[in-house]
Amino acid sequence: MVRAGIFRNAFNVHVDYDDPTSYRMDGPNTLTRATCHRCRTHLGWEYVYVPVRSILIQPGRFLLKLNKLLVWDGSQILYALTREPIEDGSD
């Protein structure tokens, strides 16, 4: 099962470029920690420096854990990992 995805855009995500402890190396690539803007839960990483770009791996793209994300499919909010709808609890 796929547990992470690469995204061009991410909303409500905080990246602290000034914190040297938030950076890590993945092969030749440099990434920095991406957290929830509100609760600071670790969501994944943003590619900062990519010496050899590919169609997917480019600076500014996000590598995010799907089990931490919600997605909008145009009509409802879903859990990104399972694609199951979010229950609103208004029953």
Features:
two-stranded antiparallel sheet; mainly beta; 91 residues; six-stranded antiparallel beta sheet; single chain
Q: Can you offer a commentary on this structure?
A:
- Helices cover 0% and strands 41% of the residues.
- It is mostly beta strands and 91 residues long.
- It has one domain (4-79).
- The strands form two sheets. Strands 1, 2, 3, 4, 5 and 6 form a six-stranded antiparallel β-sheet that branches.
Summary?
It comes from Actinidia chinensis var. chinensis. This is Protein yippee-like. By secondary structure, the protein is mainly beta.
How would the blueprint of this fold be written?
Layout: E1 4-7, E2 13-15, E3 23-26, E4 29-36, E5 42-49, E6 62-65, E7 70-72, E8 77-79
Antiparallel strand pairs: 1-6, 2-4, 3-4, 4-5, 5-6, 7-8
Provide the domain count: 1
Number of strands: 8
| Mean pLDDT figure | 89
The helicity comes to under 10%
Total count of helical runs of at least 4 residues: 0
The geometry reads as globular
Distance between the termini: 32 Å
Which percent range describes the beta-strand content? Answer: 35-45%
Q: Could you give the order of the helices and strands?
A: EEEEEEEE
Sheet with the most strands? 6 strands, antiparallel
Can you tell me the residue ranges where pLDDT is under 50 for at least 5 consecutive residues? none
Structural class determined from secondary elements: mainly beta
Organism: Actinidia chinensis var. chinensis (Chinese soft-hair kiwi)
Protein name: Protein yippee-like
Domain Yippee: 1-73
